[in-house]
Design goal:
Blueprint: H1 2-24, H2 36-53, E1 60-65, H3 66-71, H4 80-84, E2 90-92, E3 98-100, E4 107-111, E5 114-116, E6 132-139, E7 152-158, E8 166-174, E9 178-189, E10 192-203, E11 221-234, E12 238-252, E13 281-297, E14 300-316, H5 319-326, E15 328-349, E16 353-374, E17 388-412, E18 415-427, E19 431-446, E20 449-460, H6 472-475, E21 493-504, E22 510-529, E23 536-557, E24 560-576, H7 585-593, E25 596-597, E26 604-613, E27 622-631, E28 635-639, E29 645-651, E30 655-666, E31 671-678, E32 686-689, E33 698-700, E34 705-715
Parallel strand pairs: 4-7
Antiparallel strand pairs: 1-6, 2-3, 4-5, 6-7, 8-9, 8-34, 9-10, 10-11, 11-12, 12-13, 13-14, 14-15, 15-16, 16-17, 17-18, 18-19, 19-20, 20-21, 21-22, 22-23, 23-24, 24-25, 24-26, 26-27, 27-30, 28-29, 30-31, 31-34, 32-33
Length: 716
Amino acid sequence: MRVSLLSGIAFLALTFPSIAHAEDNPPADGGASATPKDIVVTAQKLDEARAHIQPSLGATSYGVTSAAIKDLPGGDNQQFNQILLQLPGVVQDGFGQFHVRDDHNGLQYRINGTVLPEGLAVFGQTLSPRLVNKVDLLTGALPAQYGLRSAGIIDITTKSGMFNNGGTVSIYGGSHDTIEPSFTYGGSSGQTNYFVSGDYRHDALGIESVDGRSNPIHDDTDQYQAFAYVDHIVGDHDRVSFVGGYSNQWFQIPNPGGLQPDGTWKIGGQSAYPSENLNERQLERTGFGQLSWLHDDEPLTIQASLFARYSSLTYRPDVTGELLYNGQAQAAFKQDLALGGQVDGVYHLGDAHTLRGGLLLIHDHSTSDTTTHVFPVDDDGAQAGEPYAIVDRSGANATTFSAYLQDEWKLAPTLTLNYGARYDRFAGYRTEDQLSPRANLVWQPDSSLTVHAGYARYFVPPPFELVGSASIGELTGTSAEPAITQNTTPYAERQHYFDVGFEAHPSSSFSYGVDAYYRISQNLIDEGQFGAPIILTPFNYAQGRIGGVEANMAYSHGGWNAYANFAAAKAKGRGIVSSQFSFDPDELAYIANHYIYLDHDQTYTGSAGVTYTWKHGALARTSLGGSMMYGSGLRTGLELPDGSEVPNGAHLDGYAQFNLSASHHFAGPNLDVRFDVINVLDHVYEIRDGGGVGVGAPQYGPRRGFFVGLTKTFGA
């Protein structure tokens, strides 16, 4: 820790003289007298400066622009996760989740360079594609400024309103009772720029179907999202900005049809309860705000931010139904408030060296309120009375501190070494820390080829969502008593990460690349659904091994835009060393002595898309396109002939989903019309079958749907 603090102090010492110089010598042409053209130029310069603070040098980077999002079937009416599923190595999972490079979540979101702390959402997507100007997925051996999560960084650059005084109103809907009105508006006034968006979505496919029905039973959702961005340019060198957002998302938990309880449990003599009548619901709320100051005055650029994020999750069970089916029912309310600050800067130290450094501090306060309804049982586990409630209220605090310093060293005109280290300390369930070295070597013999190789040491604290489960002791002698009573607090994961790859641009229209990686983990973090509430619980494998290779291609020429991605990966873990109560004894015994596939492992993953836009003739401003997504199948249990089971020893059948889109822009009324077909072939496929470690229920991919959208653009 002492080394990291000294590095941080040294970096800040370099910054203060330049800051003071900027304040003592304000630009003569800044302030309110600046012309609109000057403001635009300054804004562009500051945007470039902000991007320069955290380059992706040595990392593997995949980007999607707002224009590319609109070309996808669904456009910016789709959920944010659907966009990311079109990137290399991104695996689809149930509950709207996805995984990068066979890691479970493991993602850090950043908005305009500032960290967005994690929330408690499971199903919902906090961010709308409408706010995105560009989104980048950074993965691999990341530079030292990135830490705490190792799968990747979702780096979002938001729209600002700088270049367009106006907005849009839109209506989108179709199959599954989908209706989605939305709006955007942005512009500039003097030295102030702003952008706002909002949308509401209702449909009857809020969560994946549990039985493959085209119209699942009890699966409605109502979702609200809002976003705001404001910035103010202060002279030629400074900008203050605010980003805020809110989401409120209500989900019904879908029901299977035609089932009855097995008769093990009775309430007042009642044992029958049609599965169609179950009424389980979940509400997820998230609100966040970021206030940032950006200063750019060569050789120094610095951004300092304060941020806050509140999230809550409410699970409301069908008490009678869950008791009769499962022997327990738990109502849960969890909330978390995160406050923090972040400073990042870059300093040009001559022609050969560029220094980057920064600090991050986050404080979390979480509370949990659960009411678990259970049956008393006798020594044989049989029901011994009517159900009663166990109430558990608890809270926890966690503090995360990080500091980093790195040097981008230009060894030769074609060869660059980016090396450094970061220090992370997490004080939550337990207190742990680590100093993590990073190094990336980038060779660029010409503008058409870039080759990189890198190593990263990672420190990954456990997700802060493990709060307030009913204690093991209170569940003793009840229908919810676990077979295993051991409950070790989760550990931070520690990794050695190796990455090598290249990106080639043989022409201005065509690019392709290949990237390979291998990861060695101690206390590998995974998450699973254990129990009825749709809340994920972290646990650790003692050892983990993850490796794979990704290939990507992109083509753009004339009216054509096309891309294709393919990935192969393997992810395994051995030995459960935390949250043991969540497992069956046979699972623990097997995993203690064998590597098993992680439940989110998928051997092969692919995506592709193509769009053609007519620029002339009768079809001018008309676009036709399609996309596809392929998966070889997530993991499930393998049953052996002797009746025993290998955890995650089998995988589900592979699938391919094809989508189509057509759109036309009417120039006169400035109106866009689109028509989308999702899952054109109506392929019925399972994402999950309810088997596997920590997997709670089956989920199926969406059935065929037809959707129509109208967007009216107004203003400049």
